[in-house]
Protein: PCDGK protein
Amino acid sequence: GALLVNERIDREELCGALSPCSLSFEIVVENPLELYSGTVEIQDINDNDPAFPSSQARLEISESVAAGARFPLESAQDPDVGINSLQTYQLSANPNFALDVQTRVDGSKYAELVLEKELDREEQRELNLVLTALDGGSPPRSAHVQIHIDVVDANDNAPVFNQSTYKASVRENTPSGTLVARISAYDLDDGPNGDIVYSFSSHTPAKVRELFALDSATGELRVKGQLDYEETKLYEIYLQAKDKGAVPGVAHCKVLVEVVDVNDNAPEVTVTSVYSPVPEDAAPGTVVALLSVTDLDSHDNGLVNYVNDNAPKLSQDSYDVYVLENNMPGIPILNVSATDPDLGRNAHLSYTLLQGDPTFGHLFSINRENGTLYLLTSLDHEDQVEFSMMVQVQDGGFPPLASNVSVSVFVTDLNDNAPTVLYPHPNTTATYTDVVAPGTPAGHMVTKVVAVDADAGYNAWISYTLLQATDPSLFSVGLHNGEIFTARQLREDEAPEHTLVILLKDHGEPVLSTSATISISVAEMVKEVLTDLTDVAPANDPRKHVTFYLILAVILVSAAFFITMLSVGIFKCYKWRQSKELYNSSRSTTYRTPGPFHHIDAVRGGFTPPSFYHQVYLTTDSRQSDLLCKKPFTSSPLGSRQGTIRNGEPGLYHQIVGTASRLPTPAE
Structure:
């Protein structure tokens, strides 16, 4: 019963980074039959040195970088585990940098340079440091890398990530090329200094670079290798964004990628025969063989159950069903067919309609036993054309297995809608009147009948024909567009009013139709049309009172204006006759004491507008007059004598001023 080591054991070769590392075995003891399980844990020893990917590292750091800036360094790898794995880093003494050792989620260590004192390129152009990696063995093993730092000038602005940590999840069976995450950074600089290149950080493990690929231009992180949940459940990926300046600015971010387990491992059955051959007189219940089942998957994917191993198999992947609208409620429209090669209860199938849309429960129903799909109500093509649903077929095993199939129900159109007239509107008592002038040539479009049909396809095609007309030879209608044209030139003696009845028919079976009535006035002036419209206006039009009051107001204003103008004319005529009598009487007098001026304003009829006027100033014994051109509304008739002319022309403002022996008083 001694358990011996058969060959040299290498823990790193057997288990890699997994800890603890154990080997399981089973021992069968016969007579009496007993089964024992055993586990050997392989303990790690410190037999591996830490190792850096390269013996030298080179950094370019601008002298303008502020204190506190961090620079990730390449990580060392140690295949040992536990205390024997990589534990810490040490940095050679220097005045500018300190070392900050960080711990990842998986417990591994990585180091970052932290700038404590700003660099000065004029004092020192380069620095040489030594980074040492130490494991936790006794004595500890170590590795060294030379870090060469070039101090150079940099851009004023370094790239900046829009977030410091990105999180994503991906299934372990995701194919190569699948997008995992898209990182994004921006740089305020222009030109090459603002162009950003994405890359893995220097301390990113080689295993991560094998599994993931990063697009340097777009920042898209994609799957490159085969992920395995059973190997690694979480990847912590460090990325950087660097611009293209002479001294590139760098920004860093972290992407946490969670690997989601899928059921990609089949159960493994191990059969151990312990009693063979079986004697013919073996008692019922005698153990013949021992079976054990294991599954490498996790959670529910790793749970193993016996007997129900076949899901229902559908006869086709999807169903397309076509149903005429206005159907009878309760009719069967489809029979979903499926089979299950299992036996007994595991082969008993039940059908369920998955309720993606809550309204579908009122429209469709499925028989749980035979998979017949029923339509519970009448469908309308104009309401909804297509219904998509999912039918689930489930067996009676424990746990049950199920398969889904998609069902699409298409509602085909029937000609159940007549054309609907949009213009002229059929639900109004007002008559739509279009106007065309006499002399209009043939082919002139007068108006158009606009209609729609709620049906689809050929059932919605509308044709227009002239059913009735006051003069059938005068107008024609387009068969497919409803445009009404003059069929010939309109004469002066045409009837003033024409009524057209247009018949609209669709192309369905049976044909459905409707009609529209168009009124057309043949008129030369808008006034005639308005008169006609007034005649045909409905008696109950609520706007007729407003129109009446407007017309009455126009008449009253016109009458008041006419009376005013007539009164002014009579008054002016009276004044003119009075001045004429005064002038005639003055001619018979040899000498008369200068008397007051007489001022007459008259509108010259027929020659000038009403705003033009005469002003006549006469004195006794006046023998000659001066004709004075004067602008309207001049304050003093004597103030514009510098504009005196000897002859007057019709249509001008003028004043007749006689020689005066004195000036008039203000009252005069």
The CA atoms of residues 87 and 135 lie 5 Å apart. The two ends are 157 Å apart (CA to CA).
